[in-house]
Amino acid sequence: MSGPSWGPGEQGRTPVAGWYPDPDGAPGMVRWWSGTAWSDVTTPAGPGVSVGRAFEPTPVRAPSASSSWDTWGSPEPAPPRRRASRRTALLAGIGGLGVVLLLVLIAVLTGGNAAAPADDDAPPVAAPADPTSTFPPGTVRIIDEAAGISYPFLGDGWFEWDRGAQIETTETAGQYFVTQEDLPDGFEEFIAQCTSGPLAEGYGWDGGTGTLQGTTQAVADSVRALHYPGPNEREVRRDEAVTIDGASAWIYQFDLSWDVEGYDASGERAALLLIDVGRPAPALLYLSIPNTHAELYGAIDRVLADVDVL
User: Fold this and answer.
1) CA 217, CA 284: separation in Å to the nearest integer?
2) pLDDT tens profile 168-227
3) Which runs of consecutive H residues, i.e. helices, occur in 142-280?
4) By C-alpha distance, which of 224, 244, 214, 211 is closest to 310?
């Protein structure tokens, strides 16, 4: 997608990065402009989203490479995820005659059922871990019946949670997208997420005998140790009691920062909202966005301001 088109006297000027009215014409939607290219990220205009002035979109250019969730806001295409096997590399390094002799030998030894050599020109195949579950058309809110809460769906580019229950909740619903794959230290991938579920045992709630503040702090310490590279530094942004749709709740919002080789992100903004919904387990809402996608930080405040108790 091409960039914004400016008025007379402004030709040649590159628009600054920010949210702008969606050039696809979706009413009430804005799309992120990285400063050089449109991203795949759209979101409804609203609190926490600063929108630039309107513009006339220039004609759409055909993309030179398939888009990837890993390259939102970046003009560089993502590298293919399919890797050549050792067998393919071996065949590529042998002369034409050697290839023929090798294939004949394989055919003789296997009774003529030898597999064809891999096609290096085939299109990249998405890794099995890639998000595949999308929300039904027209989805506006995510209804978490198990937790007893609902909150906004954040729009195109966010996938329905399909990764099983997290450690912190007995069941997990919500939305996410992958921001980086092939992490160091044995982790599979890094994600941005907005998920919820009934709080699991072991964080001090104990059927309501614990406090919302103490339980939320225990969860925050746990996710910091389990889900983020270390060592890291934490800066607390909010740590306060709130009321959500008439129910008592606690918000703990923080920024983490780290300097660990192999990670695209050097930090993340996260928020935990624990709500006493009148059930044995309180509802936990967990939001986190790596700083590689800092343009979406406003979505955290937008979700926190629009949570309902079922």
Assistant:
1) 12
2) 999 999 999 999 988 887 767 899 999 999 999 999 998 777 899 999 999 999 999 999
3) 212-227
4) 244
Interior CA angle at 99 toward 95 and 105, to 5°?
Answer: 145
* Mean pLDDT of all residues in 46-68: 52
Helical ranges in the chain per DSSP H: 86-92, 96-110, 212-227, 297-304
What pLDDT is stored for residue 50 in this prediction?
63
In words, the CATH class of domain 141-309 is: alpha beta
Q: Are 63 and 37 in contact (CB under 8 A)?
A: no
pTM value? 0.61
Please give the single-letter amino acid code of residue 139: T
Q: How far apart are CA 32 and CA 57, in angstroms?
A: 14
Phi and psi angles of residue 145, each rounded to the nearest 5 degrees, phi first: -65, -35
Strand partners of residue 287: 194, 271
Nearest to 13 by CA among 41, 55, 49, 50: 55
Q: Max alpha carbon distance in the chain (Å)?
A: 78
